[in-house]
Design a protein that fits this description.
By secondary structure, this protein is an alpha/beta fold. 37% of the residues lie in helices and 15% in strands. The chain is built from 12 helices and 12 strands. The strands form 2 sheets. A 7-stranded mixed sheet has the order 1-7-6-5-4-2-3, with helices on both faces. The chain has a 5-stranded mixed sheet with strand order 8-9-12-11-10. Strand 2, helix 5 and strand 3 form a beta-alpha-beta unit. The longest helix is centred in the middle third of the chain and has 33 residues. The model has no long low-confidence stretch (mean pLDDT 96).
């Protein structure tokens, strides 16, 4: 096998996923990288130690294992550099701390992942950053919210739980006119279905816990930046001393090898289930960007190459006091679907989402919002399980 990987530049997605990040010829031909555990790294002499004139200097600054994953993510993102952090939430908080200071103003999409909102409303506010939430469908009109003190615009496409689509191109163009950094939580689509840096984002964030892992057993986040913002992100990460572990990096890199195949299955199965739900009389509406009926479908079709396995639907209730009992009956009757907060693994999951923290874009009031993660099970079995839930809800 040739050590040159120039052919990867024109290779297909699944081929790239099989080969990026690590070259077997670098380590005796083994097809997977070694797991290098490290804290202390020795230097050959005092001068080398003083100048840090070797690739590795301390465990928090990377090992061959973590570097292999970072190189793979950079290949997928088209980024200048990637940092690894212990969770998806840390992947949000580290760039916020990197690019925001006391007195700054940050614009955060109102459909944001709720732990991100909690960080903004507590720690970020306590540090002197003014946080303002905006409608996810604002598009270019976000410019009217930008002040001289606005330094960061955070996006999430689609939005958590209710799946609102954002026009990342329009938002980025407006934000860049005023020198703002644009960050995006791109966990739902991954860079396979939405290459965020190509659409104007400066920093793209992923909970690698989800699809890169794929097996519900690893916590990790990745943050990738373009050339303009890479050094600031890198320095903040070093200053905070936050890093991804070699064992977890190895597992995420292994998960990447099959991510394309898994995502394709999630995409097809979830869309089939979404269309099936849309045809039911006991579903108020289905919140899935790939459905033609969804308000943000045109943006999804224009910018995205696919959809993942997560979407929501509204389970109707005749009155507000019946919303929770119907939702609980539906969820408790499920057998294949697990009741769990995460997603991106091989198994189907369901949860009633809480939208009470919304400030600008309020959630539906005519029923419970049920978020589904459609796993890798047979679609017929998934639909049969959901049928059990609907029967139980109807009896309440």
């Amino acid at each position: 096998m040739s050590k040159s990987k120039d052919w990867l530049a024109t290779a297909g997605t699944d081929t790239k996923l099989c080969h990026i990040g690590y070259d077997p010829s670098d380590y005796h031909g083994f097809v997977n990288p070694p797991v290098v555990h490290a804290s202390t790294v020795l230097f050959p002499n005092a001068r080398a130690m003083e100048t840090r004139s070797q690739p590795y200097t301390y465990g928090t600054r990377g090992t061959p294992t973590t570097d292999a994953l970072c190189r793979a993510i950079d290949e997928l993102e088209g980024s200048a550099g990637t940092i690894l952090v212990p969770s998806g939430l840390a992947a949000i908080t580290v760039p916020f701390l990197a690019f925001l200071s006391a007195g700054d103003h940050a614009l955060i999409v109102d459909s944001v992942y709720s732990p991100c909102r909690h960080f903004c409303d507590t720690m970020l506010t306590r540090l002197g950053v003014e946080v303002e939430y905006y409608d996810p469908e604002i598009g270019a009109d976000i410019e009217r919210l930008i002040r001289p003190s606005t330094k960061l615009v955070h996006t999430e496409a689609p939005g958590s739980n209710t799946m609102e689509m954002q026009d990342i191109c329009a938002i980025s163009e407006a934000a860049h006119k005023h020198g703002c950094v644009v960050t995006i939580d791109n966990t739902w689509a991954t860079p396979l279905y939405f290459k965020a840096l190509d659409f104007g984002a400066d920093v793209t964030i992923h909970a690698a816990t989800k699809y890169p892992s794929g097996h519900s057993d690893i916590l990790m986040g990745t943050v990738s930046a373009n050339a303009k913002h890479w050094q600031v992100l890198k320095e903040a990460n070093i200053t905070l001393g936050i890093c991804g572990a070699p064992d977890d990096s190895y597992q995420i890199l292994r998960g990447l090898r099959t991510m394309g195949l898994r995502l394709e299955h999630h995409y097809k199965s979830a869309l089939s289930v979404a269309r099936w739900l849309e045809a039911r009389d006991d579903v108020a509406r289905v919140l899935h960007p790939a459905l033609e009926s969804f308000p943000g479908h045109a943006i999804w079709k224009r910018d995205f190459k696919g959809a993942s396995g997560v979407f929501s639907f509204v389970l109707p209730a005749p009155s507000p006091d019946r919303i929770k009992p119907k939702a609980h009956a539906f969820l408790d009757a499920l057998q294949i679907f697990g009741l769990g907060w995460s997603w991106g693994g091989y198994e189907s999951l369901a949860v009633q989402v809480n939208l009470e923290d919304r400030k600008i874009r309020k959630g539906p009031t005519d029923g419970a919002v049920i978020r589904l993660q459609i796993g890798l099970e047979n679609v017929e079995d998934i639909m049969a399980d959901l049928d059990r839930g609907f029967a139980a809800a109807a009896a309440v």
